């Protein structure tokens, strides 16, 4: 596999950098607001790059693996999302490409691409997280609709979503995976209720969603009744491949080295001069490089038409571990300056902030990163998948 960028790839990289600087002229930076998301989406759309992971037949740009690699690295380095549109763009759209009817594709894909409708994922339930096939949310056929009752939990973004793609049980089979159906549910439908879950860092990102006799039309079923597990597995491999966090970890590593070099002790030596810290950081960097190579191999295979398969679990498992380790290094660098930002510390954070300017940002990332071991499938589930499908144990 040749990782050297060709002259065409280098020209493409220059185009990407030019787009970024024209959209957010320095020193302005993307701040995550909806206004900035809209500006970035419109800039990508003007270049034909908004659906950059979609197939050409559905409006994608037809990038080579090297161009996709360049795009992700450059946008992440600039603090920009490689795609705008959330779960609909990166997770539901591949399912619609593969299993949706022409009518479903025509109805939902334009709204996803134009970011007019936001989606959330209805998978996990109380008691059915790691063992997802044991889910109990029930969908009963009633004429030309399904009536849904049950609940989902840890539903990211449900409080701002317009729609949910949801796994429901439509029959009780000897093999539980056989009785699951994939439905699209309007979050404004009567009987849908969203209950907030506040995470350890004080953010409202997660939710519990309940369904009380919620009706969703038969036309909102993806594929065949009872085959939702097959479709969901395909979606999860795409999700886990995207959770390697390599670009993010590379940026964290660069920032970490800069922060550690600036932290000098009484003897004038920086934290990077500490043999123990330097050795642990070097080990993390080597593991990150190995993960990057694995991600690139997967990218090439997917671009050639192969499904990510079980190796997506390797990417997800190691990616979550490494990004968590990077954030832990930042907490170590912050030392006592981290204390004002921990939830258990009573009272408001000091104003003006105490310590280096990066502390609050990286402490927030530290708390957020704890969820990476659970979201998209727990670490234990990823190890089981690797053991069964890679190591054949």
Give a concise summary:
This protein is α+β, with helices and mostly antiparallel strands. Helices cover 45% and strands 14% of the residues. The mean pLDDT is 88.
Report on the structure:
A hairpin with a 5-residue loop joins strand 6 and strand 7. Strands 1-4-5-8 form a four-stranded mixed β-sheet. It has a four-stranded antiparallel β-sheet with strand order 2-3-7-6, with no helix packed on it. The protein folds into three domains: 7-84, no CATH class; 119-227, Butyryl-CoA Dehydrogenase, subunit A, domain 2 (Beta Barrel); 242-389, Butyryl-CoA Dehydrogenase, subunit A, domain 3. It contains eleven helices and eight strands. The two termini are 29 Å apart. Helix 1 runs parallel beside helix 3 (65-77) and helix 7 (246-262) runs parallel beside helix 9. It is globular. With 393 residues, the protein is of the alpha+beta class. It has helices at 7-23, 34-47, 65-77, 86-99, 102-113, 228-241, 246-262, 275-303, 311-334, 359-369, 379-389, and strands at residues 119-122, 138-142, 145-152, 163-169, 180-186, 192-198, 204-217, 221-222. The longest helix is centred in the C-terminal third of the chain and has 29 residues, at 275-303. The model has no long low-confidence stretch (mean pLDDT 88).
Task: Give the topology, please.
Layout lengths: L6 H17 L10 H14 L17 H13 L8 H14 L2 H12 L5 E4 L15 E5 L2 E8 L10 E7 L10 E7 L5 E7 L5 E14 L3 E2 L5 H14 L4 H17 L12 H29 L7 H24 L24 H11 L9 H11 L4
Parallel strand pairs: 1-4
Antiparallel strand pairs: 2-3, 3-7, 4-5, 5-8, 6-7
């Amino acid at each position: 596999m040749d990782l050297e960028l060709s002259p065409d790839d280098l020209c493409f990289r220059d185009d990407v950098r030019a787009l970024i600087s024209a959209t957010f002229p320095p020193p302005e930076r993307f701040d995550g607001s909806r206004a900035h998301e809209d500006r970035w989406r419109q800039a990508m759309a003007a270049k034909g790059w908004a659906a950059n992971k979609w197939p050409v037949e559905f409006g994608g740009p037809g990038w080579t693996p090297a161009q996709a690699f360049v795009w992700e690295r450059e946008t992440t380095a600039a603090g920009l999302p490689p795609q705008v549109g959330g779960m609909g763009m990166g997770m539901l759209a591949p399912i619609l490409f593969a299993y949706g009817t022409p009518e479903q594709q025509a109805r939902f894909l334009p709204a996803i691409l134009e970011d007019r409708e936001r989606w959330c994922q209805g998978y996990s339930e109380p008691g059915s997280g790691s063992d997802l096939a044991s889910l109990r949310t029930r969908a009963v056929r009633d004429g030309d609709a399904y009536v849904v009752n049950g609940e989902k939990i840890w539903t990211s973004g449900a409080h701002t979503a317009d729609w949910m793609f949801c796994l429901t049980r439509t029959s009780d089979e000897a093999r539980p995976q056989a009785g699951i159906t994939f439905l699209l549910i309007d979050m404004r439908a009567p009987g849908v209720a969203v209950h907030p879950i506040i995470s350890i860092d004080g953010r409202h990102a997660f939710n519990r969603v309940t369904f009380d006799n919620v009706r969703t039309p038969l036309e909102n079923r993806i594929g065949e009744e009872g085959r939702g597990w097959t479709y969901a597995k395909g979606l999860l491999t795409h999700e886990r491949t995207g959770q390697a966090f390599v670009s993010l970890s590379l940026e964290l590593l660069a920032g970490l080295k800069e922060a550690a070099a600036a932290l000098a002790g009484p003897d004038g030596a920086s934290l990077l001069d500490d043999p123990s810290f330097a050795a642990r950081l070097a080990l993390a960097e080597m593991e990150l490089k190995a993960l990057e190579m694995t991600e690139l191999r997967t990218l090439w295979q997917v671009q050639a038409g192969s499904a990510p398969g079980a190796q997506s679990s390797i990417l997800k498992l190691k990616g979550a571990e490494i990004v968590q380790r990077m954030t832990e290094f930042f907490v170590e660098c912050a030392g006592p300056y981290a204390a004002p930002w921990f939830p258990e510390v009573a009272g408001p954070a000091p104003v003006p902030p105490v310590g280096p300017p990066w502390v609050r940002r990286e402490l927030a990332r530290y708390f957020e990163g704890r969820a990476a071991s659970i979201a998209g499938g727990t670490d234990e589930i990823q190890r089981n998948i690797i053991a069964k499908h890679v190591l054949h144990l």
